[in-house]
From TrEMBL:
<keyword id="KW-0804">Transcription</keyword>
<keyword id="KW-0805">Transcription regulation</keyword>
<dbReference type="Pfam" id="PF00196">
    <property type="entry name" value="GerE"/>
</dbReference>
<dbReference type="InterPro" id="IPR016032">
    <property type="entry name" value="Sig_transdc_resp-reg_C-effctor"/>
</dbReference>
<dbReference type="GO" id="GO:0006355">
    <property type="term" value="P:regulation of DNA-templated transcription"/>
</dbReference>
<dbReference type="GO" id="GO:0003677">
    <property type="term" value="F:DNA binding"/>
</dbReference>
<feature type="domain" description="HTH luxR-type">
    <location>
        <begin position="182"/>
        <end position="247"/>
    </location>
</feature>
<dbReference type="InterPro" id="IPR036388">
    <property type="entry name" value="WH-like_DNA-bd_sf"/>
</dbReference>
<dbReference type="InterPro" id="IPR000792">
    <property type="entry name" value="Tscrpt_reg_LuxR_C"/>
</dbReference>
<protein>
    <recommendedName>
        <fullName>HTH luxR-type domain-containing protein</fullName>
    </recommendedName>
</protein>
<keyword id="KW-0238">DNA-binding</keyword>
Length: 249
């Protein structure tokens, strides 16, 4: 159990096979599989799916994947990595593909300790939308193993476009390196709409926003109506929730 526990902890810290071997010199595929099982026990809120070298064959699917991804684990075990992508919400497919292409363009500059984290929506087996965080790593074994660590963010984080984050490990901490989000809301809003969205986010009322921007209250209301229409919301409260600054500005 001791070796399995240490290995599982290192897996969840996104270490590479090289770092794992430094801790357990006699690591084998069997010990990796046992580490997956141990990781599932230690981290019940994280689903783990691993693919073999070509991404066509599933190497491991944790049993808790059904509660996190909303599809039966046995069904997920039948999917290749490209087939899994078909579970992504149809409105997010293009953005996810763009994020993946952007990641490939940055791979040369990424180190062994860096993490790639995707955010997108999937449709579960009941047709319900779930907001998913998908952390990715690679174990450099004899046959490479691609590992996905999934968390269900539904009810905790709002995003209406896919995005990619890269974080770098510095000492014992992971620090943000960069973020990429194709077609994010701030790209389709006018500069004035973004200003008003930010001021609304700060709690200013229409009259206060008008005074701040030296425009009429009528102009502010017009811009807000345009914001509501573009973001599919009906109130300033919903606008604040949608225009989360860490996602869109």
């Amino acid at each position: 159990m001791g070796n399995d526990y240490r290995l599982a902890r290192k897996l969840m810290d996104s270490c590479t096979e090289r770092q794992l071997r430094s801790a357990i010199p006699t690591i084998s595929n069997d010990s990796i599989r046992q580490a997956f099982i141990t990781a599932e026990e230690l981290f019940p809120g994280v689903a783990l799916i691993a693919y073999a070298n070509t991404l066509q064959r599933v190497a491991y699917v944790s049993d808790n994947s059904s509660s996190i991804l909303g599809h039966e684990s046995d069904f997920l075990r039948t999917l290749s990595a490209p087939e899994f992508v078909q579970l992504i919400h149809r409105d997010d497919i293009k953005g996810f593909t763009s994020c993946y292409s952007y990641l490939l363009s940055r791979c040369a500059g990424m180190g062994d300790h860096d993490r790639a984290i995707f955010y997108y929506r999937i449709v579960d087996g009941h047709g319900t939308i779930r907001y998913i965080e998908d952390q990715r790593m690679v174990l450099q074994t004899e046959n490479r193993i691609f590992i996905h660590l999934f968390r269900d963010l539904t009810g905790h984080e709002i995003f209406n476009v896919p995005k990619l984050k890269i974080v770098k490990r510095v000492n014992r901490s992971f620090l943000p390196a960069f973020e990429y989000a194709p077609g994010r809301v701030s790209d389709v809003l006018t500069p004035r709409e973004r200003e008003i969205a930010q001021l609304t986010r700060m709690g200013l009322r229409n009259k206060e926003i008008a005074n701040r921007l030296f425009v009429s209250v009528y102009t502010v209301k017009n811009h807000k109506q345009s914001l509501f229409r573009k973001l599919d919301v009906t109130s300033s409260l919903e606008l604040n929730a949608r225009m989360d600054l860490k996602n869109y500005f």
